[in-house]
Amino acid sequence: MLKVLDHLEEWLITFLIGAATLIIFAAVVHRYASGVAIPGVQDWLLRQNMGWAQELCIIMFVWMAKFGAAYGVRTGIHVGVDVLINSLSDRPRGKFIIFGLLAGALFTGIVGTLGAVFVWENGAHYAVYTALGLDTSNMYEGPTTPDLEWPTWIVYCAVPFGSALMCFRFLQVCVGFVRTGELPHHDHGHVEGVEEVPLTAPGNEDKVFRLDDDMHPHDEGPPGPLLDHGNKKDGGRA
Amino acid sequence: MNAVIIFALLTALMITGMPVSISLGLTVLTFLFAFTQVPIESVALKLFTGIEKFEIMAIPFFILAGNFLTHGGVAKRMIRFATSLVGHWAGGLGLGAVVACALFAAISGSSPATVVAVGSILIPAMVKSGYPVRFGAGVVASAGGLGILIPPSIVMVMYAVSTNSSIGALFMAGVIPGLVLAAMLMFTTWWRAHRGGYPREVRATWLERWRAFRESIWGLLLIVVVMGGIYSGIFTPTEAAAMSAVYAFVVAVFVYKDLKLKDVPKTLLASANMSAMLLYIITNAILFSFLLTHENVPQAISEWLLSNGLGTIGFLLAVNILLLVMGNFMEPSSIILITAPILFPIAMTLGIDPIHFGVLITVNMEIGMITPPVGLNLYVASGISKLGLSEMTVAVWPWLLTMLIFLMIVTYWPPLSTWLPRTLGMM
Predict the structure, then answer these.
(1) Which of A126, A128, B62, B393 is most buried, with most CB under 10 Å away?
(2) Which residues of B touch A146 (CB under 8 A)?
(3) Can you tell me the distance from the alpha carbon of A184 to that of A171, in angstroms, rounded to the nearest whole number?
(4) Do B283 and A65 touch (CB under 8 A)?
């Protein structure tokens, strides 16, 4: 069940960003192509109206942003100022992390609820009652979008659904952290297809990594995973 | 007084390590709930209308374009081209690294990705040729910062969006400072290499240069698509971003064949992930700036500063210091989205050019990438070079100093940034 949700979420945002790109591309090509005099084709192009492209693109990106933000919680891409808490010992640090995750769940929960109320009052109530054949005389039909003329409440559904999912993801990550002590970690410096070449200067293989003096604290640098992807990619060669 | 409460609240929430976007949102909710009569429902409308601007949509498209082209193969071609141009001078590979970073920056828009792509090839190569590892790591980590100054730049789009400035003019304004900074970094590299007697490469023939150029031309053409398209008015910035995403897709999959068709969904997903994170910060930052405006915070700060006799020079210095300090703890997008709504109105009151101000902020962000404790470029370069973070900090100092000098030039000599867009009639 959770797997299905995961895939649905990934599939949705992948589709949205890809489709939005193609739509804008098509709109631009259309704008210039319909200026070229090709018999038959030009008339057909001129009959197509791409004025809705911009609006649809915005709607798709709003949906992508809301659901992508939920996916981002799962991949650990939402960064905060963690310098201070990372310098704490494990127990207090854990408490701060749990606090942060719960705060995230609280915020997204509130936003989701506000969003749901807003959507309900701005058309969803009317639409549902109309569909059920109930009395809608006192209700607000809600506005529609300017170009596509879709009811805005459908578009705005991204907020309650996206936030609810995000709230769920925060709780999920929190439970995972309490159980295993691990957080999802996003690697900001990952580049596809880059191989890590071992660093060795001829003759001083073991010296290049460290300064010779003892005046510099020999810290570990960043915790490993920065280049882990690269390693896996070429079969752990490095 | 309200300003103090708001910022104390924000700081308190932020240092617990929760995501910046969440701390912004919670600050707004808490403040509205505890200190004002504003119904929280009014927040709901802001949540919906926050990111419904077509300009903002340039961000996902630029990220997508960058991700298509940010592959080992493209970086390798650019490095070869760069080294063939400048490799024969002292510290050749180091100079090559700066040029390669500048070229790569022009297509990627992300600093850490630039550092990985260029660094993971060049740092080992430099160590092998006998350069000290600190030199190699330092030059790549610093030059990687060029990514957000040389257009296209996501940080600039962020600034443009939060201050209603022209994206096209900002991009143009970044060109000359970007080239000047690249030249200054190259000079520092050359000078260090010259003093240290570091090796140089064999001079490449013009034929070799031409070949290397031809191989990297597809990546370089992206710059032409974006800048040419925006300048000539063929595309709006967002359209240019979408076109460059499609172009980058074609180049990566069909021309360079770096990317297999079956890996495309993965790239889309990664880009969507990154974009959604940024859009989420934007949504919450818009809420936050709504709160600031509602409480008249920018005006209050502005009046306070002016009544204390702070002129343009003092203000710009204060801005630089504030941003540099913040750059030590936060990542660029959040800093811009939080500070721009406050600083921008003050700058306008003082008669500072909005485009110049944008470039100044961008340069500050760049420096923030190589100052500890939160400097992504340092982390990434330290990951490649296996130098500890404190050694990395020492390793970047010559270039850090160069960048600080450059920051002073940018700050107090506006024509450097505004000349090109003004000459082109974009502002």
Answers:
(1) B62
(2) none
(3) 13
(4) yes
What's the pLDDT tens digit per position in A179-234? 988 888 776 666 655 655 556 554 444 444 444 444 444 444 444 443 344 333 34
Structure ipTM: 0.84
Which chain A residues in 9-68 lie under 8 Å from chain B, judged by CB atoms? Answer: 10, 13-14, 16-18, 20-22, 24-25, 27-28, 32, 54, 57-58, 61-62, 64-68
Q: Can you tell me whether residue B245 is helix, strand or coil?
A: helix
CB B264 within 8 A of CB B249: yes
Q: Which residue has the tokens 């200054």?
A: B184
Residues in chain A within 8 Å Cβ distance of B331: 79
A183: helix, coil or strand? Answer: coil
Tell me the three state secondary structure of residue B119: helix
Exposed e or buried b per residue across B41-67, where buried means at least 16 C-beta atoms within 10 angstroms of its C-beta:
eebbebbbebbeebbbbbbbbbbbbbb
Q: Which residues contact B375 (CB under 8 A, 6 or more apart)?
A: B327, B328, B368, B369
CB B246 within 8 A of CB A25: yes
Q: What global pTM score does this model have? A: 0.86
